[in-house]
Amino acid sequence: MAGVRKLALEESLALGPNWRHACHVLLYAPDPGKLFGRIPLRYAVLMQMRFDGRLGFPGGFVQLRKESLEDGLNRELVEELGEGAAAFRVERADHRHSRAISGQHIVTHFYVKCLSQEQMTAVEMGAPHAKDHGLEVLGLVRVPLYTLHDGVGGLPAFLENTFIGTAREQLLETLQDLGLLESGSVSSIKISAFHQ
């Protein structure tokens, strides 16, 4: 994506007051289930349908004058996901990368948090009761981490959706980095020149 550059977290925080900071998180949990009794699910990875019809990750803009990145992100999670998100906390150790979007004076901070199955279930069950449900967030979706025999169904079809900003690239990069996909399942999927 043009005008996007990777920054160290400390460098991003020193950019000055005319930059806005947005924090988002990929939440995932082990999932021992099987689709149709035969396709291993392996992990549940959450994304959300946003108000604009695009897929993205939970989170939003934070107010650095009033809160830390993580405090703002955790506040956003409770607003968007409900009380299930209050049972865990995204910490600085969960931070993956920061990127500056120069034309918009926005810095994005991306986090990854592994939850227990119980925490994931609580988030999914509580999300329809969250303050922003039906407004900013239209619903949660699980990312299919498999490819069906036709080579299209599952993750390849999911990736044909419209994503906000760099969410598609963040998803693929994270799935690959954490080893959440079956071997070879992203071989035909272009991850893009996102590794800058």
TrEMBL record:
Q: Which UniProt keywords apply?
A: Cytoplasm, Hydrolase, Magnesium, Manganese, Metal-binding, Nucleotide metabolism, Nucleotide-binding, Nucleus, RNA-binding
Q: Which intervals hold domain Nudix hydrolase?
A: 18-173
Q: What is its EC number?
A: 3.6.1.62, 3.6.1.64
Presence of keyword Magnesium? yes
Q: Which Pfam families match?
A: Nudt16-like
Instruction: State the Gene Ontology BP annotations.
Output: mRNA catabolic process; NAD-cap decapping; nucleotide metabolic process; positive regulation of cell cycle process; sno(s)RNA catabolic process
Q: How does it assemble?
A: Homodimer.
Which family is annotated? Belongs to the Nudix hydrolase family. NUDT16 subfamily.
Name of the featured protein: U8 snoRNA-decapping enzyme
**The species this protein was found in:** Rhinolophus ferrumequinum (Greater horseshoe bat)
Which lineage ranks, top first, belong to the organism behind this chain? Eukaryota, Metazoa, Chordata, Craniata, Vertebrata
